[in-house]
Amino acid sequence: MTILYALEKLNDNDEWTRMHTLTIHTCQDATWNEWSFSTLKFALIFCLVSPQVSTKLHGSECQQLGRKRIHENAPYTYHGFVQKKGSDFEKPDLCIAFNSGASQASMHTWPATFQLLVERKIPSLFTSLNREEAELEAALLRAAGAILHPGLGPVKNPWGSINATSEPIKVYGHYAVNGWLAGGFR
Q1: Where in the numbering of this chain does the Mitochondrial splicing suppressor 51-like C-terminal domain appear (predicted)?
Q2: Which residues of the chain have a pLDDT value below 50?
Q3: pTM > 0.85: yes or no
């Protein structure tokens, strides 16, 4: 739902809803919940890009009622993936990073990806676990030149998990998977 919400906010009209194929790139390992659909109204291409991703599912395909869901796994940072693809890189309809940790756990891997997303005008969305992380990541995205969509961050994600968990290394506070939208931009 977060993906559909971002597509709705980042597009000026509803033409995207009539597209035959949507291409979604994730810049971080995503759980099946983020990209499983019971019925598809269009072909869907998912490319999971992360240095930790397994390449075992590369090229796997699922067909249901004449629709396809194609998965490609790429074990690179996103900017590394784009560089490796070279002239074969095709701009996705959305690039999304679920709980990227860009402001904390994996700060060193993101600046080049932020620059690439902004320079190539790739529609993008970053989610975060909590408000603090969302605000920090929004500042990093703005510093890279992103002009954030006001409805996409930093704000609470209407489609984020409602299962709040106590912060393990803090005296107070909670976090939730995809609980906040750090920033979305075109």
Answers
A1: 1-162
A2: 29-42, 57-62
A3: no
